[in-house]
Design brief:
PnbB, DUF4863 domain-containing protein, alpha+beta, 25% helix, globular
């Protein structure tokens, strides 16, 4: 079987379980409790997406050179309960920011550190291995510190917007 299709197939039962839940703090806590590192789902998805990045079929489109790459693995479909599946690879020694964007319907984001101590900024602070779930209408720069990581994210209706102006910093 095609490895990207295997990752999609592994995601379907998970998406069936979360399809009617709203991204945000409550869901983020639930995801980390029920599907965090050490669970069969997290470990399978982390292994599959890491192999995909290593093999060059995931997160293979450069956005800011080789340290910031992204690729869509699957578009929203009935089979995926109208979620899209995308992978992002980010690598930093010092803190690094990617493209500012908004999540009209939220996001479910599996964080897979490749280097010990690599973290992704989530809506409730820095996150190593585990999940973030920015709620509907949230917007931010994806930020990473401490090394390389992969973010495997599921977007309801595939919605993400890059045509938003960053909030003014104080």
């Amino acid at each position: 079987m095609n490895p990207s299709q295997a990752l999609i197939d592994r995601s379907i039962p998970f998406l069936d379980e979360v399809k009617n839940r709203t991204a945000g703090g409550e869901l983020e806590g639930w995801l980390n409790t029920n599907y965090g590192p050490g669970t069969e789902l997290y470990d399978d998805l982390a292994r599959m997406i890491t192999e995909g990045v290593d093999d060059g079929w995931a997160a293979n489109v450069e956005l800011d050179g080789p340290r910031y790459r992204r690729s869509r693995i699957a578009s929203p479909s009935e089979e995926l309960h109208y979620f899209s599946v995308t992978a992002v690879y980010m690598n930093s020694i010092s803190r690094y920011r990617g493209q500012y964007h908004q999540h009209p319907y939220g996001e479910l984001n599996l964080v897979v550190p490749l280097d010990p101590g690599a973290e992704l900024a989530g809506p409730r602070g820095w996150c190593g291995a585990g999940w973030t779930a920015p709620g509907p209408g949230s917007h931010h720069y994806p930020e990473v510190r401490g090394g390389a990581l992969i973010a495997l994210f599921y977007l309801p209706a595939g919605r993400i917007s890059y045509d938003i102006t960053p909030a003014a910093t104080v």
